[in-house]
Amino acid sequence: xxxxxxxRNGQRWxxxxxxxxxxxxxxxxxxxxxxxxxxxxxxxxxxxxxxGNYSSSDFQSISAADVMEIAATLExxxxxxxxxxxxxxxxxxxxxxxxxxxxxx
Length: 105
What we know:
Shape: globular
Distance between the termini: 11 Å
Number of strands: 4
Number of helices: 3
Low-confidence stretches: none
Strand content: 5-15%
Strand order of the largest sheet: 2-1-4-3
Order of helices and strands: EEHEHHE
Structural class: alpha+beta
């Protein structure tokens, strides 16, 4: 089981929970300030107290602006630490730039 990142543009990216956590921690290290996630606007979620986390797959949303900031900080990370650079990470950064916001499922 892992994390499915579903872009508003219909594109998807799947990775392990630990891989997602690694990328978020890396973004944080390079200056990302999380804006928090939001739950779907659905009556089924009305009574849930939400903490804005990024680590579960509860169909929460990440805004386009927040996703762009994650992409920018990951770009800084792979530039500053060349050993982190890979085609897959570059493709992931490009996915983030094009997705228009994410839903975590």
